[in-house]
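Ticket #4471: structure export looks truncated?
Reporter: QA, pipeline team
Priority: medium

Steps to reproduce: submit the single chain below to the structure queue and open the exported record.
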Amino acid sequence: MARPLLEDTSVTDNTLSSTGIEPMIDAKQAAAALRLPYYWFADHAMRSKYRIPHYLMGGLVRYRLSELSTWAARNAAAQSRFAGDTDTAVEEAE
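Actual output as written to the record:
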């Protein structure tokens, strides 16, 4: 009996396959993996605003988890640096 395509573990497995090619994930999987809002990955304007690395494949948008992890780490560092600058500016204003 044939299994549905969505149950194929090679499609949803986030590890490198035997060929060494990292599988692509969709917006829902990306949002769940990074614990970020789904609309950041689903909406073109948000992907552009936050400069989220993505690939357009026909009408589909796909992501590589390794690139998203790197992007999230860079953004977390930038946001914490920005937050620190803002706190200092507020203290100086008082």
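Status: closed, not a bug. The export was complete when the record was re-opened. Leaving a note from the reviewer for reference: The radius of gyration is 18 Å.
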